[in-house]
Amino acid sequence: MFRKCVTTLVQNAFCSGTSTHIIQEICQRSIHNTAGFVRPPKILITGGLGQLGTECAKLLRTQYGSENVILSDIIKPNQAAVESGPYIFADILDFKGLQKIVVDHRVDWLIHFSALLSAVGEQNVPLAVRVNIEGVHNVIELAKQYKLRIFVPSTIGAFGPDSPRNPTPNVTIQRPRTIYGVSKVHAELIGEYYYHKFGLDFRCLRFPGVISSDPPGGGTTDYAVAIFHEALRTGKYTCYLKPNTRLPMMYIEDCLRALHEFMCAPDDKLKRRVYNVTAMSFTPEELVECLSKYIPNLHVNYKPDNRQLIADSWPQVFDDSEARRDWNWQHKYDLNNLVDFMVKDVQENYINAVNGSDTRATIKI
């Protein structure tokens, strides 16, 4: 899937109106001048084997070189992850171990993806507290100690039922009711505190549901991933949200581009350390309508479960106007583009890879 994503990102930079000198300027802003010579940043990605980590590493390696982007996690990587670039064991709850990694590898940027997602976190709150809160304490303190630029993603889950839902502005009441959301608000606040108190270069984007062809990983918005896998495999899907549940979403290519552009943005352009970013909002029934153009006999049942309560407390439409104003964020993919890419990607890399050319759903591509 990501081979296409990286290629598209590079092609679009030059084919969609972004001039060469702007691309060069962005890249130059990311170069570190150390001891009289210029070098690209050395980047450590924690939680690297999740939905975003592996693909983020591939993108950043195209920009800064394979050896300058270190993927890390606590689980055994597959062969593709090992062959694509440096991979190391890193436990975010082991502060001394993290110190050793930063010193040994001369890390400049830390991208912190380690987290238990919303639905999974509710099933194991003590573990979510350790990973999502204690882990953030460690990486924030590490970044302060070694003067790293640190990125910690946040989420639409950082808002709650008392927040305005349509639209949800950048600064408003939050008060989430999941441990995932609580931990993300905590990360936002402690990061901002370290910025104001210690000058830490802390950067955080609140992502909506991120859609990629990788199998779903336990988030409330993951129905929008699972439906492609199930529908293309069987022609059927049972959705755990109501058909009219509107949530903000974003295709992974837009997500990763937003992250990279934000990390490269000059500090004086940033009026905040935490920004909303999004691309679209849709409901399950709107997604089904678009997907039915490719799978005409698609049959979807709706059986809401406990994830419906989570979704009902989250934003319906995300206001990311401040990101667009301050550092020129622009999304590229709308719902129709997203469905087109996802159908082709899941079909080619998952359905056909398992079943050969045979599939039980009748598809129009």
Automatic annotation (TrEMBL):
* Reactions accelerated catalytically: L-threonine + NAD(+) = (2S)-2-amino-3-oxobutanoate + NADH + H(+)
A single GO molecular function term of this UniProt record:
L-threonine 3-dehydrogenase activity
- The EC designation for this entry is 1.1.1.103
Pfam families linked = Epimerase
What does the record list as GO biological process? L-threonine catabolic process
Q: In which pathway does it act?
A: Amino-acid degradation; L-threonine degradation via oxydo-reductase pathway; glycine from L-threonine: step 1/2
Q: Which domain of life is it from?
A: Eukaryota
Tell me where the signal peptide lies: none
Into which EC class is this enzyme placed? oxidoreductase
Question: NAD-dependent epimerase/dehydratase domain: from which residue to which, for each copy?
Answer: 43-277
Task: Enumerate the CDD domains for this protein.
Answer: TDH_SDR_e (cd05272)
Q: Which InterPro entries match?
A: Epimerase_deHydtase, NAD(P)-bd_dom_sf, NAD(P)_epim/dehydratase
Into which family does the record put it? Belongs to the NAD(P)-dependent epimerase/dehydratase family.
What does the function comment of this entry state?
Answer: Catalyzes the NAD(+)-dependent oxidation of L-threonine to 2-amino-3-ketobutyrate, mediating L-threonine catabolism.
* Protein name listed in UniProt: L-threonine 3-dehydrogenase, mitochondrial
Q: Which organism is it from?
A: Glossina palpalis gambiensis
